[in-house]
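Worked Example 4.2. Consider the chain below.
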Amino acid sequence: MSVLGFNDIINGPLAQFLQISSQIGGDVGEHSKLVQEAFNAQLQFVQLATQSSQPAANDLMNLLKPTSDKISAIQNYREKHRTSEFFNHLSAVSESIPALGWVTISPAPSPYVKEMNDAGQFYTNRVLKDWKEKDKKHVEWVKAWVQTLSDLQAYVKQYHTTGLVWSGKGAAKGVPPPPPGCPPPPPVIDFSNDGGAGDASHDRSALFAEINKGQDITKSLKKVTSDMQTHKNPTLRQGPAPFKPASQASAPVVSPVQPAKPPTFTRDGKKWLVEYQKGKHDLLVDGAEMNNVVYLFKCENSTITVKGKINSITLDSCKKTSVVFDSLVSSMEFINCQSVQMQVLGKVPTISIDKTDGCQIYLSNESLDVEIVSSKSSEMNVLIPKGDGDYRETPIPEQFKTTITKNKTLATEIVESKG
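Applying the procedure from the previous section yields the following structure tokens:
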């Protein structure tokens, strides 16, 4: 029954999620293939648990490796595609896919699945905000993914209430061969451009026919006579009559002033929300756990200090705001910011800068292997410690030159400023 219950998830909400992902295509479609492989790997593990007794800890880790590798592949795909237009989709899945780790949780694995589902809610809300007016398909995508994890939570609660049940008698010798998995999604047929290819082909043929006329192509042009030439007809050089204002000036239009929103500093589960703070330089996040995230939104002229090692920090639409932190598991992100600063005292793997003007990055000796990904941003500087308490400032390139090689590929190089 345990295996049949997991198959119901794969053939139900997960199959719908995979189908919609394939329709959206691009990075979402490719990412969903990794999700399918992760669920199939867990199905094999659940099958093994019904046939074997509980193995030793070392053997258990080896048996979990296929699922663990797929989870890592899903999260690495997101990190390598930070500039994707579907980055929020990738993040929603990457933040919540650790729900498959319920097999290692005891005595309450079901709440853990819900916690992981909630962890992706920040990004699913972003998907809904960005796409609900553009394409309803993305709304259905969010519903299918959330339903997949909700059904997984219900499955764990029903069949593995206090932890994974090993109901077999023999020793676990390995993972059984993979099941066929769910069928591929049906192809998406678009009838909106029916006949368009033929029309385009006809237009191109007509264009090439005109070009191939050579000098005869100018025969159809109209001749410019003397009365059309401005240097022979001065009246043509006279501009339009000057603007005459109306006899009575209209009243100016005054836009209503938006009321300032109150500042907030709250903790919602794993998320620390810091919003609309102005002129506050004593903001402190202390006692956070490793899976926590800190999110700053529309803060101005403020400073926040984050103690301990957490998952990630995001500054969204902030101005003249600084953040000082110890270490991050995932990334530091700047989105739509102006004149912001960060200082890491320990380790940070990735720094992402998107649509930001003015960003100062102070690194530590432990973070010299950091990866910095920037897009649509300017005035970015990295300050590298020199060992004597001082820093060496190095700008991040903003200007590039692209040429076409002999093999008809693109070659891009940095254009250094000489000013």
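The chain has two domains: 2-159, 264-414. The domain at 2-159 is CATH 1.25.40.330 (Serine Threonine Protein Phosphatase 5, Tetratricopeptide repeat). Compare this with Example 4.1 before moving on.
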